[in-house]
């Protein structure tokens, strides 16, 4: 549940605050975002939306090879849809790109290769809060074209209850949570990362049962570059 995830995040953050900070790094990269469209959690490849991630991350040593990693990221999610008619001359194109401030908490296992280099794998929960974003619609039918854009709206629900306060069919849930799975290469002066974000929250504000099925949940594949600070 959301309450358990947030409790885990706060407990782990408290632990990290007393750990020895090993590394801080600035991160930026590409997101390939999508939204599941079946109860089994499937997505359509042509609905993948390119977005971004950027922020500051830190690793806190637990042992010689295991770190606790957290930070704060601005990250784009969403999807797109494109439908063509009349041999591709006419179309309807929609893009849905909400932005979130996300706090991941990963357990990182390092496999050293040489001095200050190595590979790593990571996994852990994340919690995110919606802060903005746009939805866009472009159409063309013969000589007629139109384009519209609007701000994405979020409900102001309480993440610690099962009630969906301030819900509406035109609004997303303000809070999202899920799991991260990733791997990467630490080259001392640069960190290369790949991460898969598996959303566990149904994104519609009127959908209260997140465990009913896996439809309408975020899926985000990220490729990022990290620049260590002070290494």
Give your account of this protein's structure:
By secondary structure, this protein is mainly beta. The protein has one domain: Beta Barrel (Porin). It is built from 1 helix and 12 strands. An 8-stranded antiparallel barrel has the order 1-2-3-5-6-10-11-12. A two-stranded parallel ribbon has the order 8-9. β10 and β11 form a beta hairpin. The mean pLDDT is 87.
Keywords:
Porin, 231 residues, 8-stranded antiparallel β-barrel, two-stranded parallel ribbon, 1 helix, 7% helix, mainly beta
The CATH architecture is Beta Barrel
**Overall domain count:** 1
Major sheet attributes: 8 strands, antiparallel, barrel
Q: What is the chain-wise order of helices and strands?
A: HEEEEEEEEEEEE
Shape: globular
Number of E strands: 12
Question: Mean pLDDT score, rounded?
Answer: 87
Topology:
Elements: H1 2-17, E1 20-35, E2 49-61, E3 66-76, E4 79-85, E5 90-114, E6 117-141, E7 144-151, E8 153-154, E9 171-172, E10 175-186, E11 191-199, E12 218-228
Parallel strand pairs: 8-9
Antiparallel strand pairs: 1-2, 1-12, 2-3, 3-5, 4-5, 5-6, 6-7, 6-10, 10-11, 11-12
State the gist of this model.
The chain contains one helix and twelve strands. It has one helix spanning 2-17; strands spanning 20-35, 49-61, 66-76, 79-85, 90-114, 117-141, 144-151, 153-154, 171-172, 175-186, 191-199, 218-228.
């Amino acid at each position: 549940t959301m309450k358990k995830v947030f409790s885990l995040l706060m407990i782990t953050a408290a632990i990290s605050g007393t750990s020895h900070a090993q590394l801080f790094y600035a991160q930026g990269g590409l997101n390939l975002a999508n939204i599941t469209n079946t109860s089994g959690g499937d997505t359509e490849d042509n609905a993948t939306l390119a977005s971004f991630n950027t922020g500051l991350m830190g690793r806190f040593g637990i042992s010689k090879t295991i770190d606790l990693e957290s930070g704060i990221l601005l990250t784009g999610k969403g999807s797109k849809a494109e439908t063509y008619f009349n041999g591709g001359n006419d179309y309807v194109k929609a893009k849905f790109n909400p932005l979130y401030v996300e706090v991941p908490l990963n357990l990182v296992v390092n496999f050293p290769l040489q001095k200050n280099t190595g590979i790593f794998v990571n996994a852990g929960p994340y919690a995110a809060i919606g802060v903005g974003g746009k939805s866009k619609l472009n159409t063309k039918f013969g000589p007629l074209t139109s384009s519209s854009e609007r701000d994405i709206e979020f409900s102001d629900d309480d993440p610690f209850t099962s009630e969906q306060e301030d819900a509406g069919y035109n609004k997303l849930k303000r809070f999202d949570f899920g799991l991260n799975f990733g791997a990467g290469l630490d080259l001392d002066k640069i960190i290369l990362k790949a991460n898969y974000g598996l959303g566990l929250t149904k994104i519609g504000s009127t959908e209260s049962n997140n465990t009913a099925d896996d439809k309408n949940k975020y899926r985000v594949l990220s490729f990022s570059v990290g620049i260590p600070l002070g290494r």
